[in-house]
Design brief:
One of its GO terms (cellular component) is mitochondrion. It is an enzyme of class 2 (transferase). Belongs to the GST superfamily. Kappa family. It holds the Pfam family DSBA. The chain has one domain: Glutaredoxin. 51% of the residues lie in helices and 11% in strands. Strands 2-1-3-4 form a four-stranded mixed β-sheet, sandwiched between helices. It is α+β, with helices and mostly antiparallel strands.
């Protein structure tokens, strides 16, 4: 049987993608999987598929905080109430998503740790990581000043800009209606896509993993 594979398409902007990332990274359930984290740009979904985010409706905007808090309590995910600085669209996540693409290329072994640090700063500490003056020191703290500087320069290249665009287009073309978008390949090589943190249990079942619950974190 081949190793199971899991690909998480994410944008820091999506709180539900944060929940999916945290559980996938930290739960022992997924330790036997080859995991790939793919940065995309959520604002591109608005024009491409007419995505309407939760904050487009006052009731949805209020409800999603209640919903997320419940999930976080159930799965022991770090979370504080409130919204991050500059959220939702005062400043887009374009630059920090490019930094994450660059990080995946320059230091793939540290990439999950950088992503974890940025997610924690954004959704737990509520810092505006969209801004370079906020996310650059966080990257440096994880990988060191020299490598961080290399990553930041790389993030401004046409290669990285093109990759982020390609990632986003590929996710949308595969049917993604929003984030998190998950591609799973089981031990028999069968492939399925799943949308939303609330379908992570279906991902576990499809991959033939043991049942997911909060005790695994």
């Amino acid at each position: 049987m081949a190793r199971r594979k899991l690909t998480l398409y994410f944008d820091l902007h999506s709180p539900y993608a944060y929940l999916a990332f945290y559980v996938i990274k930290n739960s022992s359930v997924f330790k036997t999987c080859d995991i790939t984290y793919v940065p995309v740009l959520i604002v591109a979904y608005v024009n491409a598929i007419g995505l309407k985010p939760p904050w487009s409706s006052p009731n949805k905007a209020k409800w999603f905080q209640t919903d997320i808090a419940r999930w976080c309590r159930e799965y022991n995910i770090p979370w504080n109430q409130g919204l991050p600085a500059n959220y939702p669209f005062k400043v887009t996540t374009l630059k920090v998503q490019r930094v994450l693409v660059a990080c995946s290329l320059e230091c793939p072994s540290r990439y999950p740790d950088v992503l974890n640090a940025l997610y924690h700063a954004f959704w737990v500490e509520k810092k505006g990581v969209q801004l370079p003056q906020v996310h650059e020191p966080i990257v440096a703290r994880v990988v060191g000043d020299k490598l961080a500087a290399k990553i930041i320069v790389k993030s401004t290249t046409e290669e990285v800009k093109s990759l982020l665009k390609q990632n986003t287009e590929a996710a949308i073309a595969s049917g993604s209606p929003g984030l998190p978008w998950i591609k799973a390949v089981n031990g028999e090589g069968q492939e399925e896509f799943f949308w939303g943190f609330d379908h992570l249990g279906q991902v576990v079942k499809f991959l033939g993993l043991r049942r997911l619950n909060e005790s695994h974190l």
